[in-house]
Write the structure tokens for this entry.
Amino acid sequence: MARNPNHIRLTGAERVYQVVIAVIVGIVTLLCLFPFIYVVGMSLTSEGELLANNYFVIFPKHPILRTYQLVFEQSGIIHSLLISVLRTVVGPAASLLLVVPAGYILAKDDMPGHRGLVIFFVITMILNGGLIPGYLLINKLHLMNTFWVYIIPAMGNAFNMMIVKIFVEGIPGDIMESADLDGASELQKMTRIAVPLLVPTICALGLFSAVAQWNSWFDVMLYVHDANLYSMSYVIKQLMTSVNVSDTMSSMVNPIDRVTPEGFKMASVVIAVLPILCVYPFLQKYFIYGVYTGSVKG
Amino acid sequence: MKKTISILCAASMLAALVLPGCSGGDAGSSAAATSNASGSSAAAAADVPKFEDIQFPDDAPVSGITPEKDDKRYAYDDMSKNYTVDIMMSNYGTPALAGDKDPIRTWLEKKFNVSIKCESLTGDDMKTSIATRSASGDLPDLFMAPDQATAKNLYEQGLLLDGKQVYPYLPLVRQYVTKNMVKYTTDEDGGLYCTTNYQIQDGVWTFCYRQDWLKKFNMEIPKTEAELMDFAKKCTFDDPDGNGKADTYFMISACNGGSVLDGMNGGFGTMYGDPAVHVESGALSHPNFNGVRKKVLTLLHSFVEAKVLYPDWYTIEWSKAQSYQFNDKIGCVYYPPMTLVQQYTAAKSHAAGDESVWTCASEAPIEGGKFAANGNPGFLWCWSKSGFSDEGKLKRVAHMVDSCEFGGDSFFETIQNGTDEEWKAAGYPVETPRTWKYNDDGTFYFYNASKGSPWSDNTLMTATGPWQQFGLIVPFQRNSPTGDDPQMVKENVAGNKLQDIESKEARWPNTGLLCPISDESVSPGITDYVNAQELAFVTGKRPLSEWDAYTKEWLAKGGKKIIEADAKQLGVPVPDYAK
């Protein structure tokens, strides 16, 4: 086979370098993956096998699915899953609807009060009123014990606005000028030029917002008392921190595949993490798009 | 002219702003309301004693007090007006059920003409929530304090009612609140920052031994230190389960990485003397200096030296330890015996004979030893001032809480997930019935087959469990000796027998309640130091011959302040060793 004329021949030092990098990256990857593998392994291991192996099993010899069955048998778990899905879909959408136009506007240097507005938003990024003022505000806005307490406070993220602003400022001015010449309004420029060019950014912001919404439990604990509005992360968090899970597990009737409290908790963790893990790879591809090819008119 | 009109407008606006604040516009109606309230209070006061006249018992009752029927017990509450009450409790891993899905809440609302907003949280979440809500002026009306310090702090900030205003409305509760419990919840100025009650599992813990292993070793239950060590060695080295492996141990401890006396080792802490700081012959007696602590650590050290404890005895957590216990690897546990029989037999699928595996004795396993004091305060209930500004509401809620006590009208309806009728009324199918009754000896039966819905639904059971925090008392509970399932009956009888034995144990007086100061609050960081040093003594890394040197170090690291605080609390002089 003819050698590829474009093939670059590596020197010995470069080969060693590549091997060292591969080894380091491999070790770091294992260190990152090992806890997750351990969690999944524990969730599939029966009590008998754990006891026989001194409570340290990575790959169970006789895996069981009883733990997952138990988690889903918890009466409120499916409903809380729906609440989590709802806030993970609605929350980022609402946030982006506010943040993208706000960021676009902040990118306009010629807007009156532009500098003051930017400083105002930057201050809110650095300084926070704290827990008590936040609680008082939520209370006064009558958002306590409502679904909107998950959505409205998270909509106006100044940091995300700044990110959108920076990316909009990075759009070549020629594109906008050409749109002006074509008679486009600001809304048309935003929706037809800026937003398509910002798709990777918007997807990234939406993804971060979705993960935050999925994992969030503190707001549930503080602002929501109605069990119909509990998110899955909060329900699982309560299970994880309860000392009474062991009594529940030890009273189960089947000794052959009886689960341990640890296995139950690990299954809860896997169920909480799995949806985000499944979605993330599909959104990651948006980061590698080339955006400026053929967009500037001659 | 314009200027005059402007001045007049400004003056009238100013007057409109200022005058309403000065007016006693509501004085007339307030006076009428006050006199009405006073009138009704005066009429009701005849049924309600003053706090100073209440006779709290010296000691905790050893059995339940079944009250005589008294229609006037709650005459102070006319039950006419509906009140909304916000309650916060701790949960068992599952948040409270929503709305009318909670049969116990629905039942209480109907019976007491109240609308209940109930929230149940786990420990740390409760602390955060209460701190946030108190700072925001939105405290729940009635809530369980996560700890004594929180209750005291909130009271000192003026956010809580004095318990002296509440106890007069709790006639059943105060039968179980000892004088020492009242002192425990009293601050330096004589204010009661909360009300309390008996502990759910007060005085039910004891040493339980594998009866089958005792028979195999041809031994009786150990009653001396030598017998205990002999049993410990046989459990570990004589292969009691006969599987040919060296995988059995005397105890598993389950200290969870804290103090060496945490978990099941706690039972040994009371074997060599009163473990609490107390007064003897007018002088302060502290376990570090009266020999008690050293003897306990010496015993634990001997167990470690003999290798009779499970290797991870110090770090293993409770739930993992239970796995070994229920899988026949452990010879002795410190556990509530009735609960042990229930859990063990359930773990073994109720196989015949398993109800007799465990046994216990009234005597301590160490000569002269006694068991932990009972009469300990249970949950600390805080009554917020803002929530109970209406005395009628206070009376209603106090009435409701008091009725959940042993002997009260709501006792069986709130403990152990309630009754069949409540669940049926809430629309749940009930496949197996429950039975309950008071016994003549001050105990009660609560027969629960745990089969069929809703009893087998773990989520529903744990979600409705918190309601029992008002009144459940396990020491008075027995399992029904009758029923349709012969094996279940045998297990119930076995559990009852062990509980009866346990109830006869000799206990130390509850002197600890007179000195509730935590060492950590006086000298922050000292707990970690003590835990590390005691672990070193027990494992042999530090010889016990250095005990006196250790106590000197302890004094220097903050122990002196602790001794001074304890002496001041107990009203005795500071001992010479702490001067």
